[in-house]
């Protein structure tokens, strides 16, 4: 055996002394393959000899020792530049964190250039029409690596109902929205193209299997399975101290502890998957990135994509008006004394001190519009594919990282628990050249932003007037947006009432929902409503079909209309019934399903008019 080990080592230009700093490893070298010995050498060179301190004699736990190197090989291959690069970056970032180095030293903030849109005006309609034309040249990327624990929901977040009137989950809504855009884009582009818009979902170990299950058990919600690609992100090694020593898993001494690296991984995954090249060769121009629980997002996407095309932005961040000091990052241009400049998201807790330090004595304050001049970043990005691919060829998709250790005390010498490097997808512009055209598109929050991320207890503690960002507020925001859109096309939608659910006071509008194919842009919805229509506050209206036209409809109650694509249905007259009623539910009541009790209400279906048209033809209701 010894001679085989000698042979292996000499082939690697090593002798056994390379392991002299780790005697327990040295004793076990003959268990290891040449690749594993290379990895052992890498670990020792990077100051990780503590990983082997507890290794017993050969013959004890040998399989576990080999499994340790399987994990090291995976950590090494899935990180751009490998483990050596990860540890080196970690040491630099941990040293900066310990000395309290400000990442913004030398930078002065200013308001970047972007486009501010008003829903439904001519400008908005023009951008929307262009966006629909461009949609067939786009690919969509959903980052969905997270579970709903922070929401008080044990499933994957994309499986959560977006609203409970129709029960549509987030993933179904996203897929149906992409399909509606695909169809609308084909109608606008003469020549009857039928291009399938690619849809990528970034998953994690936590969500991968359950995302596949959700798709397969629902026939991919109408999308072709070939259109959907899942890319799974791996975790990264945890660090136990300022020297970036890899943390041993407390439950298994032959494992390194790992944690998620953040959604910035999406860039390197897309690059290494080869999809970006495939898309470019297929003539695609745009890649849109979005997050997992914003039910309003697709109401803003067509116009924002139109802005990217008309303004020729390489990077376009979707944004909403932001109140000063609101807990949402601000988009700012940062210019360095050395001439570097970038348009980037600055976290809200960093924006105020940065402004105060650079000649804005009042810090983060509202301007004459009543909002901060720095728009609020909502983490939806539109990138132009060509420049994006060129940039990733230089970086491999690596994104500037940060570290956020929780120190035991003010000496900053030891951590309360292990930490790791993290990265965020919106930090992509940090490496771009000065010539890159980076802009933003601001839309009203009622139209484009209602994330679901807080559990009922945390939401109830939010100061009055600030957004709750809960399942309750997220659902109510969908009814408000749909009601305001119908008002804009001339429907008389009654004013909302204030109600309290799970300790949160919200506006309750008419419960109006429609499938994306009924209207994915303003002009389409406008063309489906005529005459004098009215909807009372306690009403519910669910539209499930493409060619359903509302004309002189007076609704006071619940109306559900469903139709197949070749059926044209005119809906008018007076509909009155007892309707559907909201009943309060306590979020602590475990007899109620999680996805209902985190909202604080359930819908009691008392009486409704429900019509289904499943034959082609023209019908009136």
From TrEMBL:
**EC number(s)?**
2.7.7.64
Any GO MF annotation of the entry = UTP-monosaccharide-1-phosphate uridylyltransferase activity
Which terms are listed as keywords in the entry?
Nucleotidyltransferase, Transferase
* Top-level taxon of the source organism: Eukaryota
**What name does this protein carry?**
UTP-monosaccharide-1-phosphate uridylyltransferase
Fetch the SUPFAM superfamilies from UniProt. Nucleotide-diphospho-sugar transferases
> Per the record, what are the reactions this protein catalyses?
a monosaccharide 1-phosphate + UTP + H(+) = a UDP-monosaccharide + diphosphate
Q: Which cofactors are required for activity? A: Mg(2+); Mn(2+)
Species per Swiss-Prot/TrEMBL record: Tripterygium wilfordii (Thunder God vine)
Please give the InterPro entries that the UniProt record associates with this protein: Nucleotide-diphossugar_trans, UDP-sugar_pyrophosphorylase, UDPGP_fam
Q: Per the UniProt entry, what are the Gene Ontology biological process annotations, in alphabetical order?
A: UDP-N-acetylglucosamine biosynthetic process
Indicate the family of this protein.
Belongs to the USP family.
């Amino acid at each position: 055996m010894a001679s085989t080990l000698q042979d292996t080592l000499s082939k690697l230009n090593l002798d056994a002394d390379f392991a002299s700093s780790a005697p327990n490893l040295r004793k076990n070298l003959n268990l290891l393959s040449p690749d594993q010995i290379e990895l052992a050498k890498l670990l020792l060179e990077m100051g990780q000899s503590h990983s082997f301190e507890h290794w017993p004699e050969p013959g004890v736990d040998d399989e576990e020792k080999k499994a340790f190197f399987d994990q090291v090989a995976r950590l090494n291959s899935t990180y751009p530049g490998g483990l050596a690069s990860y540890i080196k970056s970690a040491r630099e970032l941990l040293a900066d964190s310990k000395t309290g180095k400000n990442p913004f030293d030398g930078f002065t903030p200013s308001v970047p250039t972007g486009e501010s849109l008003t829903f439904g005006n001519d400008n908005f309609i023009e951008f929307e029409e262009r966006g629909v034309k461009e949609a067939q040249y786009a690919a969509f990327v959903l980052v969905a690596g997270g579970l709903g624990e922070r929401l008080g929901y044990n499933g994957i977040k994309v499986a959560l109902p977006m609203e409970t009137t129709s029960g549509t989950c987030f993933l179904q809504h996203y897929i149906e929205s992409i399909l509606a855009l695909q169809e609308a884009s084909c109608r606008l582009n003469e020549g009857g193209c039928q291009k399938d818009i690619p849809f990528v979902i970034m998953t994690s170990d936590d969500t991968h299997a359950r995302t596949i299950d959700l798709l397969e058990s629902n026939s991919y919600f109408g999308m072709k399975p070939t259109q959907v690609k899942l890319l799974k992100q791996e975790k990264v090694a945890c660090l136990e101290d300022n020297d970036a020593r890899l943390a041993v898993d407390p439950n298994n001494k032959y494992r390194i502890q790992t944690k998620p690296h953040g959604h910035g991984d999406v860039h390197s995954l897309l690059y290494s998957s080869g999809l970006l090249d495939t898309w470019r060769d297929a003539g695609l121009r745009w890649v849109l990135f979005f997050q997992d629980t914003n039910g309003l997002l697709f109401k803003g996407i067509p116009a924002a994509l139109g802005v990217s095309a008309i303004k020729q932005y390489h990077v376009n961040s979707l944004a909403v008006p932001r109140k000063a000091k609101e807990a949402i990052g601000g988009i700012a241009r940062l210019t360095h004394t050395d001439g570097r400049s970038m348009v980037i998201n600055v976290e809200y807790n960093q924006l105020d001190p940065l402004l105060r330090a650079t000649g804005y004595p009042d810090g983060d304050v509202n301007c004459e519009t009543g909002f901060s001049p720095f728009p609020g970043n909502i983490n939806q990005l539109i990138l132009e594919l060509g420049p994006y691919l060129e940039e990733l060829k230089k970086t491999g998709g690596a994104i500037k990282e940060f570290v956020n250790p929780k120190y035991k005390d003010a000496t900053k010498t030891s951590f309360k628990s292990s930490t790791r490097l993290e990265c965020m997808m919106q930090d992509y512009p940090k490496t771009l050249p000065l010539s890159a055209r980076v802009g933003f598109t601001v839309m009203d929050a009622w139209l484009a932003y209602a994330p679901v991320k807080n559990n009922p207890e945390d939401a109830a503690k939010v100061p009055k007037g600030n957004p709750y960002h809960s399942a309750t507020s997220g659902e109510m925001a969908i009814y408000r947006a749909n009601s305001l859109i119908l008002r804009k096309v001339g429907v008389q939608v009654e004013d909302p009432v204030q109600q309290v659910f799970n300790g949160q006071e919200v506006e309750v509008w008419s419960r109006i929902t429609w499938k994306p194919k009924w209207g994915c842009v303003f002009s389409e919805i406008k063309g489906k409503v005529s005459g004098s229509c009215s909807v009372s506050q306690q009403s519910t209206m669910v539209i499930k079909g493409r060619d359903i036209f509302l004309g002189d409809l007076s609704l006071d109650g619940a109306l559900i209309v469903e139709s197949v694509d070749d059926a044209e249905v005119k809906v008018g007259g007076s509909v009155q019934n007892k309707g559907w009623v909201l009943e309060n539910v306590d979020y602590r009541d475990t007899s109620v399903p999680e996805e209902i009790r985190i909202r604080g209400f359930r819908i009691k279906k008392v009486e409704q008019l429900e019509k289904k048209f499943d034959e082609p033809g023209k019908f009136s209701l």
